[in-house]
Amino acid sequence: MNELGEMIGAKPNLWSIFKEDPKLAYQVFFGTAIPTQYRLQGPNTWKDARKHIMSFQEQYLCPLSTRKCAPSAESNSHSVLVFIFVIVFAIVAIMLKA
Questions:
Q1: Distance of alpha carbon 20 from its chain centroid, rounded?
Q2: Is there a smaller number of Cβ atoms within 10 Å at the N or the C end of the chain?
Q3: Which residues lie below 8 Å from residue 17, measured CB to CB, with a gap of 6+?
Q4: Is 40 within 8 Å of 15 (Cβ atoms)?
């Protein structure tokens, strides 16, 4: 999918997404790979692509489970903090190498 996305110019640029919306960048990078990611940028963009990506778990995965589930706000905010920590750590490591 990445090769086709590059050919038509629809592959998501994670750095530009991270600058605008870190939660969305985290979901695109660490979440389930879905075709909606290729509608964020490039030709034929979809204005509701962000909403679809962020609600993917409750739309598709929760109905398949036998118990009632709902994504908690605590775990989501915790994951964003971990993502930001990893990015900061990588930047510091690159600066120390140079």
A1: 12
A2: C
A3: 24, 25, 28, 40, 41
A4: no
Reported as a single tens digit per residue, the pLDDT across 47-96 is 899 899 888 877 777 777 776 666 655 555 677 788 888 888 889 888 88
Confidence tier at 43 by pLDDT (50, 70, 90): confident
Those residues whose C-beta lies under 8 Å from the C-beta of residue 5, and which sit 6 or more positions away, are 11, 12, 38, 42
CA distances from 77 to 37, 47, 74 (A): 21, 24, 5
Enter the pTM of the model. 0.58
Identity of the amino acid at 36: T
- List the structure tokens of 10: 């629809």
- Interacting residues of 59 by C-beta distance below 8 A, sequence separation 6+: 52
pLDDT in tens, 80-89: 788 888 888 8
Segments making up each domain of the chain, as ranges: 1-65
